[in-house]
Amino acid sequence: MSEIRFHPGDPKRKTRSVAIGPLLGGTVAAFLVAAGTVTFLGLAGAPSLVFDLVRSVDRLALREAARRGAEAFQNVGRRAEKLSRRLAADELFLARVGLMADVPLPPGFPTVLRGKTAPPAPDEMETAIADLRRRLRLFELFRRRLAALPESGRLNPLRIPSRSPVDPASAAPVAVFGPRTSDLTREDEFFPGLDLAVPAGTLVLSPAAGTVVHTGPAGRKADAAWRRLGILVVIAHDDETRTVFGHLGKTLALLGRRVKRGEPIGRVGQSGFVPAPRLRYEVRKLGDSGFLPVDPRLYILDADWITAAELGNRPPAPPDTALPPLGR
157-327 maps to which CATH number? Predict the structure, then answer.
C-alpha cells in the first residue's frame, strides 16, 4: 500500500493524499514504463522519420515541377500549332499572288496541313520549331522575290483580276473548276469556271481594269455550252487575260467601254440554263489553243475558296474549252 500526498502552495490549505493499492500501482508503473519505451523508440527512429518526410516533400516538389513543365510544353506546342496554321494561310495567299504573276513556286510551297492535329509532343518540339523556322525563311525569300517584280505590263496589279466580282459574304460556291459529271447530260465534262449562288439583282463588279469586249447572249454561232450561260459580259484586262460573267439578269457596261476595278458591269440574274440566281465567273489566260480557263478561285484574293491541296493539284483545262470568237 502506498500513499501520495499533494501539498498546496497555500500553507493554510490542507494537504491531500491518494492511496494507491498494489493493483493500481502496478498499472501506473507499467504505464510509465511503456511511455518511456515509446519515447525512447521515437527518439531512436526520429532521423529515419525525418528522412522519409524530406523524401516525401521532394517527391511532391518534383511532381509539381513536372506538372508545370508539361503545362509549359503544352502551351508552347499550342502556340507552335497556331503559328503553323497562320503561316500556312499566309503561304497560300502568297502562292496565289506568285501564280498570278507567273512566278514558279518553291518546292513544297505552300504547306498542306492535314486537318486538325494535336500540338507536338515534348520530344517532337525541337523538330516542329526547326520546321517552322525553315518555312518562315522560305516564305520571306519568296515574298522578297515577288516584291522585286516590276509593276508594269502584265504585272500591273490594276489589271490583274484579283478581287471577287461580288461581295464574298453574300456568295457561296456551288460548282468549282475541274472535271465533274454534267447535271444535264450525266456525262463527264470539264467545268471551266466558278458558279456562285448570289441573290438576284446583286451588283457584279469588274475584278480589275479592262475593256468590255462582249455583252449579251453568246449568239447562234456559239456552241450549246456557251448559249446555256444566258446574258454574258466578257472583259479584256490585257492581251493575255479575259474574264467571263454569265447568267446575268442585266448588263450595265457598253461594248468597247473601258471599266475600272470595282466598277459595276451588270446584275446577277437567272438567264440561261440555271435553276436559281447564279453568277458564272471565269478567268482565262492566253495559251497555244487560245484563251483557256484557269481556276478563278486562284485569283480571288479577298475570299478563301481554295485550299493549298487544291492549289497544288490544279487540273489543266482541255483545249476544247477555249474561249469562242464571241469574246476575242
Answer: 2.70.70.10
